[in-house]
Amino acid sequence: MRFDWFKIAAFTAIALMADVSSAGENDVLYWMINDSATVTKGDGTEVTISDYFADPTVATSGSDFAARIRVTGGSIQDGQDVFLDLYIPGYGLDVGGGEYGVSFTDESGYWGAGVPTGNQSPSGDYSEGTPEYCFTVELGNIDSSDNWTTVATSASATYSSLGAYIHESFGLNPSAMAVWTPTSFYTPVPEPSSGLLTLLGFAFLALRRKRKEA
Hints:
Elements: H1 13-23, E1 28-31, E2 33-34, E3 38-40, E4 46-48, H2 49-54, E5 64-72, E6 86-88, E7 92-94, E8 102-103, E9 105-107, E10 110-113, E11 119-122, E12 134-142, E13 148-154, E14 157-158, E15 166-167, E16 184-186, H3 194-213
Parallel strand pairs: 3-16
Antiparallel strand pairs: 1-11, 1-15, 2-10, 3-4, 5-8, 5-12, 6-7, 9-10, 12-13, 12-14, 13-16
């Protein structure tokens, strides 16, 4: 079940310290998406993220939008789905919850996923790897059965390039932490269907035959 940041009660310092002691020294990536983000569509036009979500071809009835972080590189195999987990203040780690992302909400004048202080995602497991681990923010449309459809993605960022947003432990004062806030997203490029590939193959063969006849 996806995590809605502002539906969780405000945490106390005592509860947070208890969670930190169990979390160890794992690094934490602070990240969020706010209303300054834009999405470049397949035709090259750029729109605000709110306008993009309002597009009836993107939004579906009874669904919500959420953001999650996909991890690639290192020891992760091609095609393997790996996402950063989420830390919920006052609760602890939501292991596996990263797959369903953080819902976009409007809270106290702020709109986005994890605004205004950012989400906390343990990232220490991906600090070293050859090739280096990379993080990509995916924006998705998620229905009542938690089925996810990716509608836009950010550019990938390496672990080392995000050093300013990675901290050694869960912060007692999240508002003081630098937060990774990607602002540019792009619609996924659809893979050609098998039927289209077949048609392209026939077209290529026909072209070769014409050249030989000439």
